[in-house]
Design a protein that fits this description.
Blueprint (H helix, E strand, L loop, with lengths): L1 H6 L1 H12 L4 H22 L17 H37 L4 H5 L2 H21 L16 H28 L2 H25 L13 E6 L4 E6 L1 H11 L2 E4 L6 E2 L4 E7 L5 H8 L2 E4 L8 H15 L7 H20 L12 E2 L5 H16 L3 H17 L2 H17 L5
Parallel strand pairs: 3-7
Antiparallel strand pairs: 1-5, 2-4, 2-6, 3-5
Organism: Pseudosulfitobacter koreensis
InterPro entries: DUF2254_membrane
Protein name: DUF2254 domain-containing protein
Length: about 425
């Protein structure tokens, strides 16, 4: 079972997402690139005639002692600055976690600016060390002094790049902990993901759902692992159901938490599937220790609601941050209502699952944020404005759902009028 899961497409997708959101991948890749670059420039220094143009004489007068001192100073300075940058990053992460919610830590870990900044400095440090060991002094053993002039020039260029990276980083860190930028980044990603989901639904031809036969054998399957559903390979499930004449009921949502022995799906088949088939079906799920945004749109909404709730807590009392979060929630819901006809439930012929709907988005966003907003007049008034604007944009069943939310609001919070 473990080997099947590790080789499944869902697990591979989860692994790719984990690598992309890790704080070590880009710095490690840049360090490896620095090692290759050091070997390349040293080869050029030993074979300068291979270049069509040589260096000017002003770049060729560096002596052995001067080269060593220059490379040592650059390396020491860069590693010192790297330590300070890492400390600043940890302070920013701690500040964001305490003020905006611990689930936002992943946004800082995935930040490409932080990853590239750390990678540039560490790779420059490694490059200087590799070139420093290539500098040779003449000695009694007959070795001639050797100064890798081209490598020295590249080291100076990396030093200037590191200075620019430091300047950028000192500007970037305050930007990343600006609450408006955090909510805007979440809001834009939410909008893009909803648009992508609607596009995917439009590209797939809808077919009538298959009904299990009355005498079908029902096989309930669990994953044997507890955690959050991070990836669900619906295409693979559909292919297996089609090949084996199954109907599969998926009982869990992407992003939901499942226990080790909880039933995640039910297979309706003419005969009970073999253990190998059951393992292949379960391998379509990838479970992790935390929610991610890879396939779970609701996680971004939860983060915006959490920011609004913390902003409206008695210890913070910041209605403007809450209003900003409500604005981005309204933008995401407006996209779900209006982009290419709106978000509608979708299904697959042989795989029945709970498709994301506008009603679900409405419940986890504005209905979830209502109790926090009602205690503050500014937030309450803006909540009403956002929901009424959604009511104007909604059509059909969506309009009735938004209207029902307003009715519930008037029933439970009559003082808001």
């Amino acid at each position: 079972m473990e080997n099947l899961m590790f080789g499944s497409r869902a697990y591979v997708q989860k692994l790719v997402q984990d690598v992309r959101s890790s704080y070590w991948f880009i710095p490690s890749a840049l360090v490896f690139a620095a090692l290759l670059l050091s070997e390349l420039t040293q080869w050029i220094d030993h074979n300068p005639d291979m270049l069509p143009v040589g260096l000017p004489d002003d770049f060729l007068d560096t002596q052995v002692d001067g080269a060593r001192q220059t490379l040592a100073v650059i390396a020491q300075s860069i590693i010192g600055v790297t330590g300070v940058m890492f400390s600043i990053t940890m302070v920013a992460v701690s500040f964001a976690s305490g003020n905006f919610g611990p689930r936002l830590i992943g946004n800082f870990m995935r930040d490409r600016g932080n990853q590239i900044s750390l990678g540039v400095l560490i790779s420059s440090f490694v490059y200087c060390l590799m070139i420093l060991r290539a500098v040779q002094s003449s000695g009694s053993d007959g070795l001639e002094s050797f100064v890798p002039q081209y490598s020295m020039l590249v080291a100076l260029m990396l030093m200037l790049m590191s200075v620019g990276t430091l300047i950028y980083f000192l500007h970037h860190i305050p930007e990343t902990i600006n609450v408006s930028n955090i909510s805007a980044d979440l809001g834009r990603r939410l909008e893009n993901r909803i648009e992508r989901l609607i596009d995917n639904h439009a590209d797939r031809n809808e077919e009538p759902a298959q009904v299990p036969a009355k005498d079908a054998v029902e096989t309930e399957l669990s994953l044997g692992h507890a955690g959050y559903i991070q990836q669900l390979d619906l295409d693979a499930l559909s292919d297996m159901a089609e090949q084996n004449d199954w109907v599969i009921d998926v009982n869990v949502d992407i992003g939901g938490f499942v226990s080790s022995h909880e039933t995640v799906l039910t297979v309706h088949s003419a005969s009970a599937p073999t253990p190998e088939m059951c393992d292949k079906v379960c391998a379509c799920f990838a479970v992790g220790e935390e929610q991610t945004e890879a396939q779970d749109i609701t996680f971004m909404i939860d983060q915006l609601v959490e920011m609004a709730a913390r902003a409206l807590s008695p210890g913070v009392n910041d209605p403007f941050t809450a209003i900003n979060c409500l604005n981005w929630l309204r933008n995401g819901l407006s996209t779900a209502l209006q982009y290419k006809g709106g978000l509608h439930p979708t299904s697959r012929p042989r795989v029945q699952y709970r498709s994301l709907t506008v009603l679900q988005l409405l419940n986890i966003s504005f209905r979830a944020a209502a109790p926090y907003c009602m205690a503050d007049k500014m937030a309450r008034d803006h909540w009403m404005f956002c929901v009424r604007s959604l009511l104007d944009a909604a059509m059909g069943e969506d309009k009735r759902n938004v209207s029902k939310l307003l009715e519930d609001f008037d029933k439970h919070y009559p003082e808001a009028d």
